[in-house]
Amino acid sequence: MSIEVIYAESVDSVSIRAEFEAVCPLTKTVDHYELTLTYVPRGGRYLELQSFRRYLDSFRGVEIFHEALAAKIAVEVCRAVGPEYVRVELWSTFLGMGVIVVKTSRCADSGS
Is 62 inside any structural domain? Predict the structure, then answer.
């Protein structure tokens, strides 16, 4: 599943909030996530939101740990739009405990 790119005037940063789900590889239960994605765009390249929504929905039914999921999203955003910086925050609840996983990355310019 690829994330599409749009081009627009430059802004300082972009933050996106979304909800989606995946499956815990250990318990096989559905994990519900709240995502906050923040990135500093480069070259007027931005995530096209509908394709990003489809990308997140592609994790439905996929077994993946919280940490691996945060890292994968950061890598894919870097690959898609080559921002200067990306921060992925995943919030979920497990056994009555709030879990927050954060992945930050400095991205190389993808040249897209």
Answer: yes
Residue 112 lies in a domain: no
Write the CATH number for 20: 3.30.1130.10
111 has a pLDDT exceeding 60: no
The model's pLDDT over 17-45, given as tens digits with 9 standing for 90+, comes to: 999 999 999 999 999 999 999 999 999 99
Query: Are the beta carbons of 66 and 92 closer than 8 angstroms?
Result: yes
* Residues annotated as catalytic (active site), given as ranges: 24, 31
Number of domains in the chain: 1
Domain range holding 32? 5-106
For residue 111, being part of any structural domain is answered with no
Q: How confident is the model at residue 13 (pLDDT cuts 50, 70, 90)?
A: very high
Q: Which whole number is the average pLDDT over 46-55? A: 96
Token duo for residue 107: 């991205």
